[in-house]
Write a structure and sequence with these properties.
Elements lengths: L4 H18 L7 H64 L3 E3 L4 E6 L3 E4 L10 E4 L4 H4 L4 H4 L1 E4 L1 H11 L6 E4 L2 E5 L1
Helix pairs in contact: 1-2
Length: about 180
């Protein structure tokens, strides 16, 4: 009969308890104890070897992920370069649409975006702050010293769309990208 590791642990403990109860004058259980401990050792070593194998697999998977990640990055860089190259040449030639038999290429306008050039020039109406402190620290601190400032690009964009007036320290920019279908 083959015992599992989880069965060997209590068997060894029971045998040790029995030997302790009987004392030196009782039955000699040493051979049985040696056999159980040997079985336990074999099972434990086998399991440890399995763990080592799994750890090696994890390392191999991590290395393969890094290798594939490098290939993915290289492919993404090639795509970005090709699209930028195509966009530049289409803009230079004044062509905004190329119709092929398999692909359709268009220059598309992006939604307007805000570029903050100088935060200090942006009016306070577009600035907000976030503070993250334990509640016990709130009363002890000057909040401006610990606040993280952010600028509402959406607010700048909305006001520019309404009035057409530029906000100091920021500019609204439109650009184009290549769409391939």
């Amino acid at each position: 009969m083959t015992l599992h590791l989880y069965e060997l642990s209590p068997a060894i403990k029971q045998l040790l308890d029995l030997m302790e109860e009987e004392g030196k004058g009782g039955t000699d259980w040493t051979a049985s104890l040696d056999e159980l401990e040997g079985l336990f050792t074999d099972k434990a070593v086998g399991l440890a070897k399995l763990v080592n194998t799994w750890e090696a697999e994890v390392t191999a998977y991590e290395n393969e992920m890094k290798r594939l990640g490098a290939h993915r990055t290289a492919a993404q860089n090639k795509i970005a370069w090709a699209k930028q190259y195509l966009k530049g040449n289409m803009q230079d030639a004044g062509i905004d649409h190329v119709k092929g038999d398999v692909v359709d290429i268009k220059l598309q306008n992006t939604a307007p975006g805000v570029i903050v050039e100088d935060e200090s020039l942006v009016p306070m109406a577009y600035k907000s702050g976030t503070v993250s402190l334990p509640w016990s620290e709130i009363e002890k601190k000057e909040l401006a010293d610990v606040a993280e400032m952010s600028i509402s690009k959406k607010g700048i964009l909305d006001d520019f769309a309404e009035s057409g007036i530029a906000v100091p320290g920021a500019r609204v920019e439109k650009s184009q990208y290549v769409r391939i279908r």
